[in-house]
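Q: Is it fine to ask for two folds in a single conversation?
A: Yes, each is treated on its own. Send the first.
Q: Here.
A: Result:
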Amino acid sequence: MTTDTPATGRVVLLTASHRVAPGLLSWPAWQTLRTADRVLCADASHPQLPYLREAGVTVEHASPAARELVDACAQGATVVVLTSGEGDRKLTDGLARLAGSGRESMPDLELLPGSYDLPGARLLDLVQIMDRIRRECPWSAGQTHHGLAKYAIEEAYELVEAIEEGDRDELREELGDVLLQVVFHSRIAEEGDPDGEGAFSVDDVAGTIVEKLIHRHPHVFGDESAKTPEEVKAHWLRMKAVEKQRDSVTDGVPLGQPGLALAAKLASRARTAGLAVPLPSGSGVGYELLALAVAAEAAGVDPEAALRAAGRAYRDAIRAAETAGGA
């Protein structure tokens, strides 16, 4: 005599990224939703619900325990649980305990991703968090572009230091700090000037740089060609000159940057433009440093980076002297 083994059914935990527009589910997810015996969701405000209702999928507002979910799959039923973006740890832990007991006839368990994050999706989280901080944090709510300017400079220097030290963990953190400055300033800009004029958002900022990159890379997005880095730079400078309508190659060079960097930048602009400009005559350490910076730029050396490297060596020598003196 044979005994029929009862069908154990199927539990599908359907996840969907909150960073992807609701309703943009994969085809396997839609197939599973439309053929399931029951679809459950504990969150009555889940962003997918309006789109599921529009597609004719009936969703029950329920938060079953693991035992209840197993029982619901009796007789071979398929039950889909629409989880939150972070999943449902309590439910999955409960199912794992039942399966591990060895005393339960468990349904088939399946984790079905309905949508995946695209590259850069976590930037959406950063924008949302910055928006809330701007509204609810007293310090952040009172900040202005001018007040934050010094932090942008500090974070940029810390990023450079992490690069030069070769510290990958520090590099990741400092890149985040620089990114925060961009998002923070963009959030402030949404409010416009004191009169509420000239507002723009982080999307406007991203859109502007996207358009600029496409326009300045005709060898990538257009019909022109560039086989060497020098040809790419020539394209860039030519496009930039057309955009900015500048009268001099020195236009746009910030005079407030560190002196060695300023000298190297001016030398680079003159050299790229094919201008043979003799150095101004003068005496004193300033003119000596100018000559060194120009010579470094011509040799392909960043004088600021070179001086920082020498400065670190000097720092180490000072520490060594302090240690020897205290011995």
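Q: Second one now.
A: Result:
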Amino acid sequence: MEFVQGMSSKDIKTVIAWILCFLAASISSAGGVGGGSLFLPILNLVAGLQIRTAATFSAFMVTGGSLTTVIYNLFVGTSLIDYEITLLSQPCLLLGVSVGVFFNIMFPEWLITVLFATFLAFSTFKTCSAGVRHWKNETEEIRRSRDCGDDEVSLEVATAMDVEIVCATVGTPWAKLVILVVVWLSFFGLHVLLADKDGQSFIHIKPCAVGYWLITLSQIPLAIGFTLYILYAKHRLYNEDHHENKHMKNIVSQNGISTQPKFIFPVAALLSGIVGGLLGIGGGLLINPVLLQIGVPPQTTAATTCFMVLFSSSMSSAQYLILGMKGVKQALVYAQLCIVGSALGLIMMERVVIKSGRASLIVFMVSIVMALSTVSITSFGAIDVWSDYTDGKYMGFKLPC
């Protein structure tokens, strides 16, 4: 009690922000999303950080939480990361983020808030509907197993639940990981050429000059080229392994992954990246419901989304460092809290899913995060819009430069 009394009001707010961020990280990691939409309001409204500072801290926190999830999936738990989806999505996701950032600069704050509230409300409804659908299917499988009273149906259900585990744990695809890293480094290299910590180009290119736009627009052919190469490599590998892995491909198609047209993933990633860059949040909250809607299993969706978010959030963090981010030590404290919180959330969710036999709980967890994000970010944005209005600031569209 004496310790609390000796703390300043600012210290108390910081401790409360730590606790809330820890809980937000636990909930977000359990659902397979980054949690940036929850971190931003906490850092700004509770910790009292400025919006720009809160955004930089949030990038580090999302990176820490997603890194924990990826390490857990790869080395501790059962790896359910779908590298095919990640490869097809990552180039267009990074391109979409860059496009969204330009829209973020041009669009007025009130429009961004309205778009965010509308999009998240719709996505929350669709995700919750997907959770109800998965829950009904699981209930029917459990009922059939109990009514039949034999092991045949139980084996059938167990096989269906374990198919994605079998397909996802056959070694670590180092070649695919190398491609993902090359994609990340390629986009990051372009951003490094555009600006340094003083806001000036390393190769002395003036902002919005011809060279600036050439480098910026080069992200489009870069993303298209990587995506086409990945599609070509996938098609060639499919033909080579057609006879050897025919049985496995039939199993994978039951998941709803191979049955989907491959262009769906880069298109969905591009749109998710644009919305994510526009709204200033990670793409996990946007990609997750998209994958659920096209039939990817909940556990695979959660693991794959976190893996993709690691690449996008780490790029944001690296860019902030290059641009001379302040408060790095404080940001690392928040990131460490998110690392511990994410690990706790993962362990608890895995135990609950195993004990209940219901992977749909992950979908409902995503719905909870999205609902909380809808309320928090909408309120967060409304406060900023009102502040701009009362201060007499310009509230129309702006030029990108």
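Q: Anything structural to flag on that second result?
A: Two points. Residues 134 and 331 are 38 Å apart (CA to CA). Confidence is low (pLDDT under 50) at residues 150-169, 247-257.
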